[in-house]
Amino acid sequence: MAKTPIAAKNQAGWAAVRKKLDAFDRAGLLALVHDLYDASALNRRFLEARLLSSSAFLEEYRRLVADAVYPDPFSRRQVSVRDATATITEYRRSTGDLTGTVDLMLTFLEAGTEQAADLGYGDDPYFAALERKLDAIAKSWSDLSADAREDAAKRLDWVRTRAQSIGWGYGDYVADVVTALQRSHGNTKT
């Protein structure tokens, strides 16, 4: 018996879903969105961030990122770089807000640096994740407004100072990237 390719097995996809959605009236579409909203906290956060655009939602995302990267040391929660990254991605996709996304990456970086400095936490994959977030901030730097860059520069300066005592080459990496940002954008001090 010949195996059916996976694509052939699953004919459902966005095109099929969209075709069904085209047949919905306004009330039917609202009922569907309501059901999605009620289905999970993730859906609620996504819809609220996309449609309501409030600083309170950014604060909730900050808390989720910080708690995933640096959970209460007395709790039994594990550090979850994956959850923090997924939360940042969710925010970016739901809002398209670059400044808020960079804010969340800075929160990730601050919490991770604090975790490593306070508790000596970290290993190669952990520091690699922190470095990737720093690289993503640097990549987005020129697209930020002057005010957002100024705020980010202050926060990066704190990270650089805090990371000086951390091994694994992390402190040096942070210092190099922050210094390069300063030079490339004409700042004498971050």
Supply database-style keywords.
mainly alpha; 2 domains; 190 residues; single chain; elongated; 10 helices
Question: What's the quick description here?
Answer:
The chain is mainly α. It is built from ten helices and no strands.
Q: Write down the secondary-structure element order.
A: HHHHHHHHHH
**So what's the overall shape?**
elongated
Q: How much is the radius of gyration in Å?
A: 21 Å
Question: How would you sum up the major sheet?
Answer: none
Number of strands: 0
The low-confidence runs, each spanning 5 or more residues with pLDDT under 50, are: none
Compute the average pLDDT.
87
Portion of residues within helices: over 70%
Count of spatially separate domains: 2
Helix tally?
Answer: 10
Kindly report how far apart the N and C termini lie. Answer: 66 Å
Word description of this protein:
- With 190 residues, the protein is mainly α.
- It is elongated.
- It has 2 domains: 38 residues, no CATH class; 132 residues, no CATH class.
- The protein is built from 10 helices and no strands.
- The longest helix has 22 residues.
Topology:
Elements: H1 6-9, H2 14-22, H3 26-39, H4 41-52, H5 55-69, H6 81-95, H7 98-119, H8 124-140, H9 146-163, H10 170-184
